[in-house]
Amino acid sequence: MLEPAPGADTRWVVVDTDTGLDDAHALLYLLAQPDIEIKGVTAVFGNTTVRQAARNAATVLEVAGRTDVPVYLGAAGPLQGDAVIDTVWHGEDGLGDRGLSTSIPHIQAESAADFLVRIANAHPQRVDLLAIGPLTNLALALELDPEILCKLRSVVIMGGGGPYPPPGGLTLTDSNSNHDRIAAQNVYTAPNIENVVMVGVNVTLRALLDEDAYDRLRRQPGPWATFAAAVLDASNGTYQYLWGRRVSAAHDGLAAVILHRPNLVTKWVEGPVTFTATAGSFAVQVARTYHGDPLTFDTDSGPTIRAATGFDEEEFSRSFLRALMRRDSFGVDDEHAPPAMNDSG
């Protein structure tokens, strides 16, 4: 599903993003990989407005020296209703209001949905899509081409909550699905969903970056690590009010790593997706128990999706931080790469 394409030297990736703090880290991670070629970034509303998301993406690309990567403007709001922007988590500008978003992007004339359809049809089974924002752009692409999912080589979605929790556990919800509930339902219930992977908050909440990670980034020379450190400092500052300490979850970063290195996933679960909507939340879950067994009650049946439920946390921490530090730019080999982070305060 996610293995390198046969005969291809590089993986072609499109990143669909509402470029907030963890989105920026995810994009940096992919830009650091020599075996990944980002063919385009499609912006969507969510963590910030769609135009600000495009500007933030252009800023990350400029930091990485990749202004050649095209940026496409996508949906400014959900399929129905008005857009709700996450200013509490990501600031007014999506990057923590630290003055980091400085680039004026050259926006392509083609819309995000049109671009997704075009590249999927021009290069069938060649392009991986990393969807780390609301699924509105992909839902619009599905309206244009109902077969687009099977034309993409893989679709890795940061969203959903994985399987049902154990007794007494909390049902987890994610902001990407909640931003556009109809788009999420349209994507998760579409035909030909076999190559779609859910990386839900059930696993991303364990992908932690703490103050130790910030200190390492801060000490690393160069604009790449300096930018990554400023992003993490803003994110940790927000999460301290939720968790009582300066540590944040690399939601989108984990999805990017799983797209690149699916072997880091240690456990998967497969089943149809269920949707539970209330006035204030929208839960997207796989109709399986946390052990992977079928539920003991009936649910609406739908296409089967694959969701990550476990991953190598130590190797994720090591490889993700190494990419954010851009250690290979300074002649540091794997033997001297930073050790894994821990989640101690």
UniProtKB/TrEMBL annotation:
Is Lipid metabolism tagged as a keyword?
Answer: no
Q: In Gene Ontology terms, what is a biological process of this protein?
A: purine nucleoside catabolic process
What positions does the domain Inosine/uridine-preferring nucleoside hydrolase occupy? 13-317
Transmembrane domains' residue ranges: none
What molecular function does GO assign, one term?
purine nucleosidase activity
Gene3D superfamilies (alphabetical): Ribonucleoside hydrolase-like
**Keyword Membrane in record:** no
**Domain of life the protein comes from:** Bacteria
Q: Which InterPro entries match?
A: Inosine/uridine_hydrolase_dom (IPR001910), IUNH (IPR023186), Ribo_hydro-like (IPR036452)
Give the UniProt keywords, A-Z.
Answer: Glycosidase, Hydrolase, Plasmid
Q: Could you tell me what this protein is called?
A: Inosine/uridine-preferring nucleoside hydrolase domain-containing protein
Report the source organism.
Answer: Mycolicibacterium arabiense
